[in-house]
Amino acid sequence: MSASDVVDSHLVGGKNVLLVDQGVSFGGALVVLVSIVKNLKSGYNPTIVSAIDGDISKWIDIGGDFEVLSRKPAFTYVNRFSAYEKIRKIRSRVVRKLSVYMLSIYEFFVNLRYVLDLCEIIKKRKIDVVHINNSVYVLMAAAITGTPCVWHIHGVVEEKRSFLHRLLEPSVSCYLAISNYVSDSAAKHGYPKGKLVTVWNPVGDQFIEEGCTLSNESRNSDLRERYELAGNAFLIAVFGRIIEWKGQLEAVKAFAEAKLGDEVYLVLVGGSTEGFGDAYLEEIKKQAKLLGVEKNIIWAGFVRDVHEVYKDVDLVLHSSIEPEPFGLVVTEAMASGVPIIASKLGAPEELVDDGVTGLLVDPRNSTEFSTAIQKVVMDAAFRKLITQSAKISVKENFLPKQYADRMCEIYDQAISPEK
Fold this sequence. Notes:
By secondary structure, the protein is of the alpha/beta class. It folds into two domains: 3-74 and 111-202 and 400-415, Glycogen Phosphorylase B (Rossmann fold), CATH 3.40.50.2000; 206-397, 3-Layer(aba) Sandwich (Rossmann fold), CATH 3.40.50. The chain has helices at residues 28-39, 77-88, 93-110, 112-124, 136-145, 163-167, 180-188, 222-226, 248-258, 279-290, 307-310, 328-336, 348-351, 366-378, 380-397, 400-415, and strands at 15-21, 44-50, 67-70, 129-133, 149-153, 172-177, 196-198, 208-209, 212-213, 234-239, 264-269, 297-301, 315-317, 340-343, 359-361. A seven-stranded parallel sheet has the order 3-2-1-4-5-6-7, sandwiched between helices. Strands 12-11-10-13-14-15 form a six-stranded parallel sheet, with helices on both faces. Helix 6 links the parallel strand 5 and strand 6. Helix 1 packs across helix 16 (400-415) and helix 4 (112-124) packs across helix 5. The longest helix has 18 residues, at 93-110. The radius of gyration is 22 Å and the shape is globular. Residues 1-11 have low confidence and may be disordered.
């Protein structure tokens, strides 16, 4: 559907919000946007623009009374990553710099069509505020149309803002960081501290029942039946895209080192979906075989209704080997009444009270990681204690309605800033 075909469905009354995500595959940023629009107060009319081709409902239950439009830049971050990998191999420093410069110019011009499409959507839908997920091109559209925006920082900031970003900054009402770790990284790279606001991500609605977190008494047995496992099999799960920084390889190594027995299984939930190839996936399989645990690894692949898997597992590992901007897996496990062992790298240190609501480890240290796994698997009383404390923490800090209410405050401030 072209921009000119967009239906004027949200033009009467209320405040019109456009939420734009450039992720080309399913991920946490899109999950958060969907959570926001599902829980906005009455009087707010949201529209999501996603870069995923086709109907995103195959990835996530969108529900609600709002539209999701599909728009993708001609040159995405995946294209940029691939191009930079080639540029890094150029020996001449001068040629490398020139190549980066030329690439930036090329990217700018080929993505202008995307910017103009967004401008048309903003004008046609009479958008009052634009919610941006890390995209200078969406910021361009907001600036061109004179629409205030909220810039949502979903990742750790590792470089200074571009000249174009700094030039268009007056259109940004606030920079919304998903953790203090992300906020600190942004401040170190020149983001204006006066505009930085930290709001932790919420757990998804599917993890909430009547305002409370899921009961861990409702364990199902789908995984055990599907893979013909014994009823008393202990299932340890790792959730996330199969990419190197998520640390599935480190989880397999720690699982092997823990030597937990034949009735303990490691379930890898997620697919390789970002266009970076399957080399990492094959490396994990190779190591599992070398370590003698391949028979105890379950490859579940991508699961749409992932909350159903949480109901069926006994322990969740969060194994990121690079600083994690947030870690939805951490709070999802806590909400589901499943013990969590999380990477101490990045934001999880803010989310988990070590030894109280879960355990924190460095996944790169296989001994530390495997020892923590052994402790949780072997100590049922400890599992019960930390899951009870974790569920209390979720109710206090991570409920989606609380989060959406905070977003409404932020949108209102962007639309009508205090004098």
